[in-house]
Each structure stands twice: as C-alpha cells, then as structure tokens.
Hydrogenase maturation factor HypA (Thioalkalivibrio denitrificans), 121 residues
Amino acid sequence: MHELAVCQSVIRQAEAVAREHDARGIARIRLRIGVLSGVEPELLARAFPLAQAGTLAEGASLEVDTLPVRVVCSRCEAESEVPANRLLCTACGDWQTRVVGGDEMLLESLELLTAEETEHV
C-alpha cells in the first residue's frame, strides 16, 4: 500500500519539526491533498495508525483537507476550478490549460505537545 509509505514519510517530517521545537509528542497532523496527487485520503487514514506506532505521533489525530483541481487557460488566462477528468477552461472552453492546483500534498500544520502537556495525558 503506497499510502503507508506516504504516512511514514509525513510522520518523519513531523517528527523532525517536533524535535526542532523540543516537543515531546505530536497531537495532530493536518494535511492538504489535491485530488490529482495520487494519494487516496481514505487509504491514508487507514494506514496512519500503523505508521504512527512507536513514533512521536503515536496517538495523534490526522486531518485531511481535499483540494480541488485548478487550471489556468493559456488562451484567456482565466483560472478555473475543474473536475479531475475535464481540464477545460470554464470561461472560454479551451483545452490548452495548465494545472496550478490540485496535484499537491502539503503538511499544513502540526499540533505539538510540550513536556507539561504529556505529563497530563
């Protein structure tokens, strides 16, 4: 499952940030995933508990915001939100568009735990 490797990579990145801030743990990881990214949010959510075991993110929640596909038209320069299987300009109908959003996967934010917070958990 490719999503397990994605989760492991996200957790490694989150752990690096947590260590930079002397955090004792990670309470929440928030991702923004475009529909063209090749990552399935449902499969990611199922793989997350396996990937977080034994890490600073153990017990953390995962939040995923799905991002729509956005294109810019080469002809009229309009920016449009479009379905993933129809990358046409919604303003003029031209097919010569460039994807400017919806193919990304971003680590949006982390909620880190301090030493005091982990003593109460």
Q: What stands out?
A: The domain at 2-115 is CATH 3.30.2320.80 (hypothetical protein PF0899 fold). The longest helix spans residues 2-20. The chain has a mean pLDDT of 94. The radius of gyration is 18 Å.
